[in-house]
Write a structure and sequence with these properties.
Blueprint (H helix, E strand, L loop, with lengths): L2 H10 L3 E2 L2 E3 L10 H10 L5 E3 L7 H12 L7 E3 L7 H10 L8 E7 L6 H13 L4 H6 L6 E6 L6 E7 L4
Parallel strand pairs: 2-3, 3-4, 4-5, 5-6
Antiparallel strand pairs: 1-2, 6-7
Length: 169
């Protein structure tokens, strides 16, 4: 499907339900990341994007990272569960959340993370959630994320990042 056609269909379709864009198991690849990102930018009411069960890779993560760095982005939940994202894509997304004060949920379980380089992914998310290098780093850490799941596609019972469920209470 042509990315421009996808953009037009998404803008007019039932896949957008109020504040959610639901494109799970829709054979979405990296070439659709930019049109989806543009739809999210044009629709500030969108708070949730469901892209589980697709074929998004590190390249698509670059596009979504740019979106998440945008202070006008209102996404609260991004579901990238069961795609083809590797370590670099996870790291790019983690780094994009340093200044993000809106995203509360990021699901990245069942992706293609490389066990040999898993420590870099863990370190990126640890720095994101609580960087203890200095008082200023602690202050600047992301205190918005409430639910984070990152695990291997081939080893789903061996999480790369344990599910983080943080309560504000």
């Amino acid at each position: 499907m042509d990315p421009d056609l996808l953009r037009r269909r998404v803008e007019q379709s039932r896949s957008m339900c109020g504040t959610s864009l639901k494109l799970g198991i829709a054979d979405i690849t990296d070439e659709y990341a930019l049109p989806i990102s543009e739809v999210v930018k044009k629709r500030p009411i969108l708070e949730e994007v469901q892209l589980y069960g697709n074929r998004i890779t590190n390249i698509g993560c670059e596009v979504f990272a740019t979106l998440l760095r945008d202070t006008n982005c209102n996404l609260r939940k991004l579901n990238l569960h069961n795609n083809d994202i590797g370590n670099e894509g996870a790291i790019v997304l983690a780094e994009s959340l340093f200044g993000n004060t809106k995203l509360k949920t990021l699901w990245m379980s069942y992706n293609r993370f490389d066990n040999a380089d898993a420590q870099r992914v863990q370190d990126a998310f640890t720095r994101l959630l609580c960087n203890t290098e200095s008082i200023n780093s602690i202050y600047c850490s992301n205190h918005t994320i409430e639910d984070l799941t990152v695990s291997y596609k081939d080893l789903p019972h061996r999480p790369l990042i344990e599910t983080v469920a943080i309560s504000s209470a």
